[in-house]
């Protein structure tokens, strides 16, 4: 799968992949600040747990996918992503209950939010890693090329 396979609203290829990756990172940082350390930590733990659980159960899932009437790499990817999402939501809901009242303490609430933003960024990086691993897209290269073409100077290294 190549970045040139994608286009939306006139934005195509590597630019679209880079914009989606950057939007994911910004969204996860903002959501991490809102949710806090405990919720983001449990979400990141659920994300990693889901990845390893589905990696472990991948053979069973691959066997079930091959029996579907629709075949091809996109159908397999879609089934894998739906299973990933469902297991993630289940684990995330279970782990999120642990420490929801921490945000109510004024100073700890702010620190909790800042650390949650850091973990939100880490979870976005993990999701982008999974996208690269599952699709073969070079997301990092797409983002670097996109940022070097911006009219402003950004310290990339």
Q: Which secondary structure elements does this structure contain, and how are they paired or packed?
A:
Elements: E1 7-8, E2 11-12, H1 13-35, H2 37-56, H3 58-66, H4 73-96, H5 106-135, H6 139-148
Antiparallel strand pairs: 1-2
Task: Briefly summarize what is shown.
By secondary structure, this protein is an all-alpha fold. It is built from six helices and two strands; from the N terminus they run ββαααααα. It has one domain.
Question: What can you see in these coordinates?
Answer:
- The protein has one domain (12-148).
- The protein is mainly alpha-helical and 157 residues long.
- The protein is flat and about 55 Å long.
- Strands 1-2 form a two-stranded antiparallel ribbon.
- It has helices spanning 13-35, 37-56, 58-66, 73-96, 106-135, 139-148; strands at 7-8, 11-12.
- The mean pLDDT is 74.
- A hairpin with a 2-residue loop joins strand 1 (7-8) and strand 2.
Distance between the termini: 28 Å
Order of SSEs: EEHHHHHH
Strand order of the largest sheet: 1-2
- Class inferred from helices and paired strands: mainly alpha
Please give the radius of gyration in angstroms.
18 Å
Number of strand segments: 2
Domains, number: 1
Helix content: over 70%
Q: In this structure, how is the largest beta sheet organized?
A: 2 strands, antiparallel
Please report which band the strand proportion falls in: under 5%, 5-15%, 15-25%, 25-35%, 35-45% or over 45%: under 5%
Shape category? flat
Q: Please report the number of helical segments.
A: 6
Mean pLDDT: 74
Q: Low-confidence segments, ≥5 residues, pLDDT <50?
A: none
